[in-house]
UniProtKB/TrEMBL annotation:
<keyword id="KW-0449">Lipoprotein</keyword>
<feature type="domain" description="V-SNARE coiled-coil homology">
    <location>
        <begin position="122"/>
        <end position="182"/>
    </location>
</feature>
<keyword id="KW-0813">Transport</keyword>
<keyword id="KW-0653">Protein transport</keyword>
<keyword id="KW-0472">Membrane</keyword>
<feature type="domain" description="Longin">
    <location>
        <begin position="1"/>
        <end position="115"/>
    </location>
</feature>
<dbReference type="InterPro" id="IPR010908">
    <property type="entry name" value="Longin_dom"/>
</dbReference>
<protein>
    <submittedName>
        <fullName>YKT6 v-SNARE homolog</fullName>
    </submittedName>
</protein>
<comment type="similarity">
    <text>Belongs to the synaptobrevin family.</text>
</comment>
<keyword id="KW-0636">Prenylation</keyword>
<keyword id="KW-0488">Methylation</keyword>
<comment type="function">
    <text>Vesicular soluble NSF attachment protein receptor (v-SNARE) mediating vesicle docking and fusion to a specific acceptor cellular compartment. Functions in endoplasmic reticulum to Golgi transport; as part of a SNARE complex composed of GOSR1, GOSR2 and STX5. Functions in early/recycling endosome to TGN transport; as part of a SNARE complex composed of BET1L, GOSR1 and STX5. Has a S-palmitoyl transferase activity.</text>
</comment>
<dbReference type="InterPro" id="IPR045848">
    <property type="entry name" value="R-SNARE_YKT6"/>
</dbReference>
<dbReference type="GO" id="GO:0000139">
    <property type="term" value="C:Golgi membrane"/>
</dbReference>
<keyword id="KW-0175">Coiled coil</keyword>
<dbReference type="GO" id="GO:0015031">
    <property type="term" value="P:protein transport"/>
</dbReference>
<keyword id="KW-0564">Palmitate</keyword>
Length: 182
């Protein structure tokens, strides 16, 4: 008879999904309350950046992302989502002072599209391509400089060879001039 070991239970994480959601909701409400109408701001909270956009009509949105996510892309996403939301949902249905409990169907599509800022934002894509081109150009310039140094070495060696061959020619001519052919 063999004995089996009991299955290991996963360790509890410091945050459950509910506490993360509560953190995001509380932080978002606080930032929106403290932001002026018609303003955009980025607030650092722990290791995250909270990007908030409050429109003049008091409709607000918050994107919580890591510090590497480009701010410009986050604000583009907020502007697009808030514009579409305001067109699809009557202002009378907007909840006041609390997060929207309205199911906004286009949000999931925007969030999945904006997971990769390079693909979602043309400016970020162009910037990434420029960065790649800059690296390639830098490497090419280094190669050219190395080749230029090698060419300089070849030129100086050929000059030395030319000088040596002239000296050899003169020496050979002197030695051959003493002898006469009959």
């Amino acid at each position: 008879m063999t004995r089996s070991r009991p299955a290991l239970e996963p360790k509890c994480h410091a945050f459950s999904w509910l506490s993360v959601q509560e953190f995001m909701t509380f932080t978002s409400q606080l930032i929106v309350e403290r932001s002026a109408k018609g303003s955009r701001a980025s607030v650092k909270e722990q290791e995250y950046l909270c990007h908030v956009y409050v429109r003049n009509d008091s409709l607000a949105g918050v994107v919580i992302a890591d510090s590497e996510y480009p701010s410009r892309v986050a604000f583009t996403l907020l502007e697009k989502v808030l514009d579409e939301f305001s067109k699809q949902v009557d202002r009378i249905e907007w909840p006041i002072g609390s997060p929207a409990s309205i199911h906004y169907t286009a949000l999931d599509g925007h969030l999945s599209r904006y997971q990769n800022p390079r693909e979602a934002d043309p400016m970020t894509k162009v910037q990434a391509e420029l960065d790649e081109t800059k690296i390639i150009l830098h490497n090419t310039m280094e190669s050219l400089l190395e080749r230029g140094e090698k060419l300089d070495d070849l030129v100086s060696k050929s000059e030395v060879l030319g000088t040596q061959s002239k000296a050899f020619y003169k020496t050979a001519r002197k030695q051959n001039s003493c002898c006469a052919i009959m």
